[in-house]
Amino acid sequence: MRSQLKNIGRRVLTPRGGLIAAAVVILFGNAVVLGRVAYNRTGEPEVWTFSEREFSQPWRYRYGSNRENSGMTLHLDWQGEPPEELDDVWYRHAWRGLGVEPRLLEALGYAADHDCDAPGRRRPDRDERRAWVALELDGPAHRRHVELMAEHLEEQVSQAGPEPDEQEKRRLDRLRERFDDLKHRGTRLYAVDLAVDEADLERRYGDRHLILPAVVSPRYDCDRPTSVYINRLFNTAIHVPRGYRAAFDRLVGRESRGSRPPFEAVVAYGRLREPWLRDIRPRTRAEE
Amino acid sequence: MTDASSRTAAQRRADGIAGFHAELAELERAGVLALTPAQKEAVAAHHRAVREALGREHDVDFSEGARRLSLGMQVVSFLGAAALAASVFFLFYQYWGYFGTPSQLVILITAPLAALIAAFYIRQREDTGYFAKLAALVAFACFTLNIAMLGQIFNMTPSHNAFLLWAVFAFLLAYTLDVRLLLAAGILCVFAFVGGETGTWSGMYWLDMTRRPENFLLPAALLFAVPSLISHRRFHGFAAIYRVLSMIIFFLVILVLSNWGHISYLDWDADWIEGFYQFVGFAVSALAVLWGVRSGHAHVMMTGNVFFALFLYTKFFDWWWNWMPKYLFFFLIGLTAILALLVFKRLRGVQQMRAGA
After folding, report:
1. Whether B117 and A276 lie within 8 Å, measured CB to CB
2. Full-prediction pTM beyond 0.90?
3. What ipTM did this prediction achieve?
4. CA A262, CA A283: separation in Å to the nearest integer?
């Protein structure tokens, strides 16, 4: 056995054998990747139409080492359930999570709860786990968030009284701006449910929700119900091929901070839930 | 033809010949030994033939100056390869947006193939091998870019399987063209793949592999054993790379676990886990030093030495930094260095005695 292996090694490691074997690795690697792409695109894909609201800005990130990148990728912008602190303008960076039943935590392989008073330095298992997330586009989750924010704003304004001081005025202005952004410009793509198996979500939501792979970790907080952080949501980056670049550039023009020319992108999701761009077109004011 | 199977053996033979002539001159000067002119001529002719063969087959250095220049060429070759790899990457990034998807595919697939063919073509035409190695490193960079960019163009979910492909490619080029840097790249890719794969067995996401460093202990031990199980005499410096890289990974894992016990798989109290790994760190690094000295593997001895000191000083810092006056802290560090010197002096004495015997 050992001598056979040695013979194979000697044959492969000749210059000619090495060249052929290395070329085979290149071709094999590319065949596997392209085969996977072809498999993803067979059958009838799920087609989603996102507006400019669902993509994070700037659409072309041109800073640091990315300054010289001539390629272009759109990134879906999404959020979890509304946070407890509606005043916090930074919450979207800190909290993209979902409240879950303790049995889901167990299904993910975590402890259902954590004893906050337990002695010792041992921490609960917080390794990231693969999961599947259902996202809802422009549905009840977004509307509920807008309502919650409207109620909160009204409450804050009434609490501040008819003549608030300068600091309070600035806080209320920021809150109004935040509300306006949420209602008219912010993303309407919300993570609403989570499962260990993709099939579970498919059964519950069919193609009404966008189902994507994610990486989650538990949030153990003794004062709050059990929940998970959605640390990464995959397949939200959509490469813009050269064929659509001209259309996109015409629509967007010179992008500047705050400018969001209306457009919509038609994105297909295949068997492996990996996306590809199908179209970019202008959105009329009536559709907004 | 020489019987030297690797560049290391060839260099040793060339050094032996130079040493023989120097010692012969000393013996003649002292009047201990005098060869006849015919004998001298026969030895010189034989050595000339051997040196020519060594130079032709293994590109060995025949003088100190040549040896220093070789080292310089290795450094320059490494820097050149790194710069060329970065250049390939940024060149593609600068222009890929101007190509349609089919053209991007053709460029991405043909670039590593072209660099690969160039590497083998140059190898056949150039003696030193530096330029072929450089081209091989560029081929590896192109292949890495190839797979990574396909993932980006087709919006694919990231997978650790790419590391397996890169590892196989790097090993093939390293062994065929004798490129140590690619061997190191291949070994690191193996660590990334095995770390990701074992992590997913426990339900973890593969990119989170560093949160469970124990996953790297077994692969590190196995890779350390590779040169002992499979002879690497034909490959100059490969055994040292296997051993040193796997030791670095192994000891880094131990160092992390000896300070952050809560990330261990062991279901003990974190303090116990940290204590356990501190003990393992001291014991294994001390064993590495001893084994390195006994087996003549200087690189193993040096790596064990560095990590033993690191474990020791980390512990000293933990115990004393906050409550001890700084002059006393550094004085104690100095004392431990003196103690280590005494131990090494003793070990050296033993080695010298053996060599004398």
Report:
1. no
2. no
3. 0.83
4. 5
